[in-house]
Amino acid sequence: MHARIRELLRYLDDTGADLRAAVDAVPPPLRSRKPAADRWSVAEVLEHLSLVEQRIANMAAAQIQAGRTGGLGPDTNTVGTLESFDAHRVVDRSRRLIAAEATLPHQGLDEPAAWAALVEARDAVRTAILGGDGLNLGELVIPHSVMGHMNLYHWVAFIGAHELRHAAQIREIAAQLST
User: Fold this and answer.
1) CA angle 120-113-179, nearest 5°?
2) pTM value?
3) pLDDT tens across 95-137, in order?
4) For the chain, which domains are there?
């Protein structure tokens, strides 16, 4: 496995563990309760994450296939990608972001079902990225509505930072529900 892929998959494992810890800190009966009418519940946050990650998995698989068909060459760079990605810009919760319509929770999933959907989406991300292992995924550049143009390595880093952002949100939800 290419060093850059290994770095990113390890990052996703770490951010996923942080997210799981945040969810586990919320008592199960409260995971479907909204802290306010205009805020998401823990289950809705997880559903949102699953929708975002599935969309990225689909985009990544399509981009990798197109790159492979177009003759995308090997990645000879072994410098890590996390240093060149501004995760703080994603994680920073001082600025409220509005999710795209397609990524809004709407299925009414409970927390176990939402978590299962997220695990399935994460598996799809891993499969897509591993399908491009060895290719220069840094050459595949796709725009993001907030972050601007990002290469495919940065899209994977975005997933981890996005989970950290929402892990912080879940911790906020827990604090709001406990008062």
Assistant:
1) 125
2) 0.95
3) 888 888 889 899 999 999 999 999 999 999 999 999 999 999 9
4) 3-178 (1.20.120.450)
